[in-house]
Write a structure and sequence with these properties.
The structure holds 2 protein chains of 2 kinds.
Chain A: E1 15-19, E2 23-24, E3 30-31, E4 34-41, E5 51-55, E6 82-83, E7 88-89, E8 94-98, E9 113-114, E10 119-120, H1 130-144, E11 151-155, H2 157-168, E12 175-179, H3 187-201, H4 219-233, H5 236-242, H6 261-276, H7 279-291, H8 302-306, E13 312-318, H9 326-338, E14 343-348, H10 362-373
Helix pairs in contact in A: 1-2, 3-4, 3-7, 4-6
Chain B: H1 3-11, H2 15-21, E1 27-31, H3 37-46, E2 49-54, H4 57-65, E3 70-72, E4 87-93, H5 102-112, E5 113-121, H6 126-133, H7 158-168, E6 170-178, H8 189-192, E7 195-202
Parallel strand pairs in B: 1-2, 1-4, 2-3, 4-5
Antiparallel strand pairs in B: 5-7, 6-7
Classes of the chains: A alpha/beta, B alpha/beta.
Chain lengths: 377, 203
């Protein structure tokens, strides 16, 4: 079992890279130049063979682990798995986290200034997709002198980027770790994303995506979108156990204010998220999820796509995840088996639904640790 | 040699036979692979490649630690992840008696593999018969569990297994029978044999 020997990577700082080689996106639009913010932990070895890329999910960013000198409480979103002696062992590996293009944590995104107009990009920001992110991450790898990743790892939308990496740059990735992901979204997945987007798009403060110049923010829509998303990240059992039908004040109010603890929790989560996240980024990220489907390149034959890969694979799912259920991970596994790739698959019994992938669970971390122990650095 | 070591060796007495049937470079699927040791042996000793299937979380973790490909899955649910004829050999070592859907498992093995290798403990082994005659459920080298904590759900003899194969039109290509010490048995196999190791294929 993985035991936390230390307090993790400690003090970290974000870095910024500017790219001015135009990037043609999947949509056909061209991004003339852009910035990516990223963080690194550990030391890149002499032949640059020990690098692991951590891809983030819908609301994630480059700050994967550690904390900032001036913000001791701002701990990275996956701090529990990164550090000396942890599964993403910084004594062995050089870990890279990056905020994806279109994000709202420092990389060029809809809230950034469009050099062509001198105003925030807003609605003009091009649609970015998973393969576009993979191309930008490859450019970051070039910049860092990393020809080939020892591994690319991610959960949820991050897992989809890892999967994309394996077939887009097969010669640049040795191991692919896909956690709580799916080979493409189902109609139900897209439906949830649509409701979330409609909440934002119909908010009067949205102004067609150009709310920045109106000094407005579609907070209500973003809040609803997050509340809806949050329901899908948790399991029914866990919600029942944590909140049940518990009342906030012990009595029914016979009104529409917050009565139940689950309402209080969701409102809190929605408010917190809407306070810092950019609505346009939320729209882009959910659309990138909808559009993700590598099998399209082979007329829906995922096996044919996965045959391009040359990495080994670890696929992980969680029994209570209904957003991207174990069956969806099994689809990936089946295609990898049919493509005769080296693949292991763990279906982990954790109660916390889709969000299980962020948990500090000894067995889950032992699986990642055992796999990465076998990875040559 | 202490008794624990003896037990481990006895429990692996079918491995050498299985290994001798696997040709270099062949694709092998090991169902109920445990910690992956058998598959690792087949890879290292016989140059095989392939996958293990294991339902138990500790086995999956141990297999990953052993560096083998392991897929966490319940073989009682079938082998839907695997394509037809994907393997030269599908191995089921000391596991058939723990599976509820016996016929479906055998059919699935012969769907995804050209040939199946099945080793089964023999409830008809004389020591087991003696235990039942004495009024107690058998606990022996190849059936080491007490009745109240056994993973076994199907109780059958080698003769029963062979009758099922005949009924299903499955051809037994080779049969090796071992006694409780792992030594070959050449006569009265359903009485003197503690473990049967079979190569089977579709008729």
């Amino acid at each position: 079992m993985t035991k936390k020997q230390t307090s993790g990577v400690g003090l970290v700082e974000a870095k910024r890279a500017h790219f001015d080689t135009p990037l043609t996106l999947r949509s056909g639009e061209v991004m003339p130049a852009y910035d990516l913010v990223y963080e690194t932990y550990g030391t890149l070895n002499a032949d640059a063979s020990n690098a692991i890329l951590v891809c983030h999910a819908l609301s994630g960013h480059h700050h994967v682990a550690g904390h900032y000198a001036d913000q001791p409480k701002n701990v990275g979103w996956w701090d529990n798995i990164v550090g000396p002696g942890r599964p993403l062992d910084t004594d062995k590996f050089f870990i890279v986290g990056v905020n994806n293009l279109g994000g709202c944590h420092g990389s060029t995104g809809p809230a950034s200034i469009n050099p062509a107009t001198g105003k925030p990009w807003g609605a003009d920001f091009p649609m970015v997709t998973v393969i576009d992110w993979v191309h930008t991450q490859a450019r970051l790898a070039d910049l860092l002198g990393i020809q080939c990743w020892a591994a690319v790892i991610g959960g949820s939308l991050g897992g989809m980027q890892a999967l994309r990496w394996s077939v887009t740059y097969p010669e640049r990735i040795k191991n692919t770790i896909v956690i709580a992901a799916a080979p493409y979204l189902t109609a139900q997945n897209i439906a949830f994303n649509d409701v979330a987007r409609q909440a934002i798009l119909t908010d009067p403060e949205f102004y067609g995506g150009n709310y920045y110049e109106h000094n407005a923010r579609p907070v209500r829509g973003l809040r609803l979108a997050r509340m809806l998303g949050h329901i899908t990240y948790l399991s029914d059992d866990q919600m029942g156990e944590k909140f049940g039908r518990g009342l906030r004040n012990g009595n029914l109010s016979f009104g529409f204010d917050v009565d139940f603890q689950i309402e209080s929790y969701l409102h809190y989560q929605g408010d917190k998220f809407a306070g810092y996240f950019d609505a346009n980024t939320y729209l882009l990220m959910t659309r990138a999820l909808d559009y993700f489907d590598p099998s399209r390149e082979e007329n829906g034959d995922l096996t044919a796509v996965m045959k391009r890969a040359s990495s080994d694979f670890l696929i992980v799912s969680f029994t209570t995840d209904w957003r991207f259920s174990p069956e969806r991970s099994r689809e990936i596994v089946s295609s990898l088996l049919a493509a005769e790739k080296n693949v292991s698959y763990a279906e982990i019994d954790l109660a916390f639904g889709h969000d299980s992938f962020l948990l500090d669970d000894p067995y889950y971390h032992a699986v990642i640790d055992a796999y990465l122990k076998k990875v040559q650095a | 040699m202490n008794s624990a070591t003896t037990k481990v060796l006895a429990n692996r007495s079918d491995w050498n036979i299985i290994a001798s049937w696997v040709q270099p470079g062949e694709r092998v699927l090991d169902l109920g692979c445990g910690d992956g040791s058998l598959l690792k042996l087949l890879i290292e000793e016989r140059g095989a490649r392939g996958y293990g299937v294991e339902i138990d979380a500790a086995g999956v973790l141990a297999s990953i630690r052993n560096g083998i490909n392991v897929v966490q899955s319940d073989i009682d649910q079938g082998l839907a992840e695997f394509e037809d004829n994907a393997f030269e050999h599908v191995v089921l070592s000391r596991t058939l008696q723990t599976v509820k859907h016996t016929e479906n498992t055998l059919r699935e093995m012969l769907r995804v593999g050209r040939e199946a290798v099945v080793s089964v403990p023999n409830f008809g082994y004389w020591k087991n018969r003696q235990a039942v005659l004495n009024g107690r459920m058998p606990v022996s080298e190849d059936l080491p569990y007490q009745w109240y904590d056994t993973p076994n759900v199907r109780f059958f003899t080698l003769a029963d297994f062979e009758a099922l194969c005949a009924q299903m039109g499955i051809v037994i290509k080779t049969r090796e029978v071992l006694d409780a010490a792992g030594q070959p048995v050449h006569e009265e196999h359903n009485f003197l044999g503690s473990l049967g190791v079979y190569r089977i294929s579709k008729g």
